[in-house]
């Protein structure tokens, strides 16, 4: 157990005895110092970054406006269903590592090993991707400073944040996520004004770009290519399960954070991108430019085309702050996943150790070093090719994580039935997914379909030569073979070929029924009227 190897104190929010039965803390080193407002703002804006502001431009040019909207709609609906499955497990077992540990516990240690290391690699790869994006964004203003300088500055800023207790990370993310939310809302308003003829040219925009150059670009191939971009833009939503391991009152706070998910996707992604398709054509020269600079953002293009001279620089600065935020979150997530792997004997035990502030210092240092090393690969042209593979690894990791979460939920339900624990869902304030198992089954199928689309466009990319290319294929699909090799390797080395028997699934360790304070919060919340409940989501 983590308690025997940590130097920190046991969390003041993890119960050692609940309901008359002994329930040991899953991770005694990590401390529950994040509260409701931290979780709410991380849920709202934690993963808003280059995927929305820059990646959407490439997606629009490849697939057209209809493909862009269909991809984000399907991703949004799927994520909402997936997060309901995760919430069922997280409110009962708010453990560090979240779904990577659920895979080990409810399905198979081999799956937990593969998913854990895959998601850890996803975290460090996303950090490197954001470091590159930061350099691209700064290049909007100047090209005179060497790439290594900006990457080094990006690394230092993000690592300094994690030199402080986890509450500091929560406060930084609260402020930056608030800025993200306000910025996206501001962009939506500005774009709406441009549509209404508020630009310097007075031109009004409707749906003309859906007619010419057209709603679809490159047919099904274009649509298939947009899914991975949408996944990268929305990916990271599942990280709330990992954050729950250090959140106060998870039974109260976690479901509330998930309930805002559809609103976040509907407003921040669907609405903003829908407005963009009205003012920026998919054939705009800046979208098709191979230079990949900040001007390729459809949001910047819309403002520039409207003749607004100051806002592009302001928006670029805001996106740069968003990029730094996503980098910080990536380090946080990768270090916590590494702690979970270590506690399960799938990584060196040294990574379980925490200091008195609850920081897993060795996991943070190791994740920071690897993330930094991958970031510097972008300094050379050869490194840029290798970096592209890591970017693909992170994109596919989201698809694999979502399918794993849904499958873990099915196994979790079956284990509860096999052990006579179904009554847990009838307890006061229990959380249950909507229309289970039909909606989760549909969501699993949808994610598998999108992953299959990525397989297809990796073989036959948009603008390709019409025949498979090994380099292009592995550059776009490398995450899946790595995942399968790790899963198979664990089984071969340990000789564990089947799933954990349902009757032997551990439904004790880490289970949390909630304390008196949490029950009082839930009771007071249930007594409120609808509009007063809505007001509880607003934090200052």
TrEMBL record:
Q: Which molecular function terms from Gene Ontology are attached? A: amino acid transmembrane transporter activity
Q: Where in the cell is it found?
A: Membrane
The record, for Pfam families, names: AA_permease
Residues of the Amino acid permease/ SLC12A domain: 38-497
The entry's cellular-component GO terms read:
membrane
List residues traversing the bilayer: 41-60, 66-96, 117-141, 147-166, 178-199, 219-240, 261-280, 317-341, 362-380, 386-408, 429-452, 472-490
Q: How does it sit in the bilayer?
A: Multi-pass membrane protein
Is DNA-binding set as a keyword in this record? no
UniProt keywords (A-Z) are:
Amino-acid transport, Membrane, Transmembrane, Transmembrane helix, Transport
Query: Which PANTHER family does the annotation name?
Result: AMINO ACID PERMEASE (PTHR43341), GENERAL AMINO-ACID PERMEASE GAP1 (PTHR43341:SF1)
Which protein is depicted?
AAT family amino acid transporter
Q: Which organism encodes this protein?
A: Terfezia boudieri ATCC MYA-4762
């Amino acid at each position: 157990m983590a308690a025997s190897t940590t130097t920190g104190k046991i969390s003041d929010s993890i119960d050692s005895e609940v309901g008359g039965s002994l329930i040991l803390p899953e991770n005694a080193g990590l401390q529950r110092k994040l509260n409701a407002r931290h979780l709410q703002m991380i849920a709202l804006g934690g993963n808003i970054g280059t995927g929305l502001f820059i990646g959407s431009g490439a997606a629009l040019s490849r697939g057209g406006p209809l493909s862009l909207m269909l991809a984000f709609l399907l991703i949004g609906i799927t994520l909402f269903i997936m997060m309901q499955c995760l919430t069922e497990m997280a409110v009962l077992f708010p453990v560090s590592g979240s779904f990577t540990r659920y895979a080990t516990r409810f399905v198979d240690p081999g799956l937990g090993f593969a998913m854990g290391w895959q998601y850890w690699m996803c975290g460090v790869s996303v950090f490197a991707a954001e470091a590159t994006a930061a350099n691209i964004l700064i290049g909007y203003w100047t090209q005179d400073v060497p790439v290594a300088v900006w990457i080094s500055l990006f690394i230092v800023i993000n690592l300094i944040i994690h030199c402080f207790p986890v509450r500091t990370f929560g406060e930084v993310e609260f402020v930056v996520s608030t800025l993200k939310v306000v910025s996206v809302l501001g962009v939506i308003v500005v774009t709406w004004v441009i549509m209404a003829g508020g630009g310097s040219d007075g031109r009004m925009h409707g749906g003309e770009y859906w007619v010419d150059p057209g709603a679809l670009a490159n047919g099904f191939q274009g649509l298939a290519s947009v899914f991975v971009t949408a996944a990268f833009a929305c990916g990271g939503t599942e990280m709330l399960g990992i954050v729950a391991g250090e959140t106060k009152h998870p039974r109260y706070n976690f479901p509330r954070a998930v309930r805002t998910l559809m609103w976040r996707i509907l407003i921040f992604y669907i609405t903003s991108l829908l407005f963009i398709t009205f003012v920026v054509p998919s054939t705009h020269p800046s979208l098709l430019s191979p230079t990949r600079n900040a001007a390729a953002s459809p949001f910047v293009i819309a403002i520039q085309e409207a003749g607004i001279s100051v806002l592009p620089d302001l928006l670029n600065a805001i996106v740069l702050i968003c990029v730094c935020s996503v980098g910080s979150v990536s380090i946080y997530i990768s270090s916590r996943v590494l702690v979970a792997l270590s506690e399960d004997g799938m990584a060196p035990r040294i990574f379980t150790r925490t200091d008195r502030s609850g920081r897993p210092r060795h996991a943070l240092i190791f994740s920071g070093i690897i993330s930094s090393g991958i970031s510097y690969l972008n300094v050379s042209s050869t490194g840029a090719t290798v970096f592209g593979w890591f970017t693909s690894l992170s994109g596919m990791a989201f698809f694999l994580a979502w399918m794993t979460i849904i499958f873990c939920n099915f196994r979790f339900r079956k284990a509860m039935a096999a052990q006579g624990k179904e009554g847990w869902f009838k307890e006061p304030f229990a959380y249950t997914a909507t229309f289970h198992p039909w909606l989760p089954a549909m969501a699993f199928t949808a994610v598998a379909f999108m992953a299959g689309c990525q397989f297809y466009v990796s073989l036959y990319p948009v603008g390709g030569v019409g025949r498979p290319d090994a380099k292009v294929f592995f550059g776009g699909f490398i995450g899946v073979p790595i995942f399968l090799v790790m899963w198979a390797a664990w089984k071969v080395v340990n000789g564990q070929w089947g799933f954990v028997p349902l009757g032997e699934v551990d439904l004790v360790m880490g289970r949390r029924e909630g304390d008196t304070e949490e029950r009082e919060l839930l009771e007071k919340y249930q007594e409120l009227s609808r509009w007063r409940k809505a007001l509880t989501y607003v934090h200052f």
